[in-house]
Specification:
Strand content: 5-15%
Distance between the termini: 37 Å
Largest sheet: 2 strands, parallel
Structural class: mainly alpha
Order of helices and strands: HEEHEEHEEHHHEEHHHHHHHEEH
Strand order of the largest sheet: 1-2
Number of strands: 10
Length: 386
């Protein structure tokens, strides 16, 4: 238990690679957000921090991070995270056990991500009170409910990227510090003794709060970043309509494909409990940054680009893209479902639905599938995903 990570198990090029990745990824994320916003790849933008854009020497190559927008974005991201935590706490949901830990213990997880997803969309669509001025004395009355102006996510895209980077980095620092508390179980790959490496990979396996009932890693994997990704897509579609007067076929497909992908993830929330991220990886900057910043920003780059750029795809082109994506999704979901069913079964050899699958034992004592989807390729689910 909590054995040191040998150098032979290093990933990402060891401590130096982990350190450089921790520095480079935030810069790349901001740069990609900027490129998608201006509609072209520009390798050396000039960085500025101005609130009044009218005072800027206008140049679309200028990468400006407005301090005012950044403060608002940080506040919005904190409110968003807290909102989802509240939903996780108060909404009904199934409580299930995860995979066995090295101690033999099984942690319990509260699963209500699917319900949180729909309530979030409903509140954003119909939850903003509409207040009307009724007299010259400042009297007001509520006239109903309207949607929240989530197209602001498009307007604040670069600042939102910066805010998510700051918050995910702050969370990573806190996670690293708390991993030195007594009684925690450390990840096998994140206990090298090197600060830069362990900070990035993640030392603690299952950081929990609220008397051990709130799992930080499982929560961050599927909720704040993943749902925000879809909200970014929706905001881009609204912004495109405001700019062009219509929504392009390519933007429609982006929202359908990626929205369905997000829905599928939260609908199958239980399946994540048998994934490598949950069972083996520590929770450090690699996952915190990936879940909270990389996913919502870089996965919505296509939609951000399309806001002002209509590729004018034909019906045949859109149909081909639809068919290709549907086939890829079929591979992705079928392969993942097969793997999850196999890992969840206590005796797959005698399970009528699984006994046709072949496997080989590993040095770690686990079973590696060698037939079915997983006999086709080592990471067949990623083939469909891409």
């Amino acid at each position: 238990l909590n054995a040191k990570t040998p150098a032979s198990d290093y990933e990402f090029g060891g401590p130096i690679g982990a350190f450089l990745t921790s520095l480079i990824l935030p810069v790349v994320t901001i740069w990609l957000a900027h490129c998608a916003s201006i509609g072209e790849v520009y390798l050396t933008p000039t960085l500025s921090f101005l609130d009044d854009e009218a005072q800027q020497d206008y140049n679309e190559k200028l990468l400006n991070v407005s301090p005012m927008k950044l403060k608002q974005s940080v506040g919005a991201c904190i409110a968003w995270f807290v909102f989802l935590v509240v939903l996780e706490r108060v909404l009904p949901g199934e409580v299930v056990e995860g995979a066995p830990l090295v101690t033999g213990q099984r942690l319990k997880y509260r699963l209500n991500g699917h319900l949180s997803f729909w309530i979030t969309l409903a509140l954003l669509a119909f939850g903003k009170p509409s207040v009307t001025l009724i007299d010259d004395q400042g009297g007001t009355q509520m006239s109903g409910f309207v949607r929240y102006p989530i197209e602001l996510l498009c307007d604040y895209f670069v600042e939102m990227a910066a805010a998510l980077i700051l918050l995910s980095t702050a969370l990573s620092v806190w996670l690293y510090l708390r991993s030195f508390c007594d009684g925690v179980i450390l990840a096998k790959g994140g206990n090298s003794g090197n600060v830069a490496y362990d900070f990035f990979i993640g030392r603690e396996l299952n950081p929990r709060s609220l008397n051990g009932t709130f799992d930080w890693k499982e929560f961050c994997e599927l909720r704040p970043g993943l749902i925000l990704w879809f909200l970014f897509d929706i905001s881009m579609a609204i912004k495109q309509y405001q700019n062009l007067g219509y929504i392009t076929g390519s933007m429609v497909l982006i929202n359908i494909f990626q929205g369905f992908y997000v829905w599928d993830a939260v609908f199958n929330e239980k399946a994540i409990l048998t994934t490598f991220d949950i069972t083996t990886d520590g929770f450090g900057m690699m996952l915190a940054f990936g879940d909270l910043a990389w996913v919502p920003i870089t996965y919505s780059l296509q939609a951000r680009y399309l806001v002002n750029h209509d590729p004018h795809l034909s019906v045949w082109q859109l149909g081909f893209i639809l068919a290709l994506n549907s086939f890829g999704y079929y591979i992705f979901r079928s392969a993942n479902s097969e793997k999850d069913a196999f890992r969840s079964s206590t005796n797959p050899e005698k399970d009528v639905n699984l006994r046709h699958l072949k496997f080989m034992p590993t040095k770690r004592g686990t079973k590696l599938l060698t037939s079915g989807w997983w006999g086709t390729a080592r990471k067949i689910n990623y083939t469909g995903d891409w």
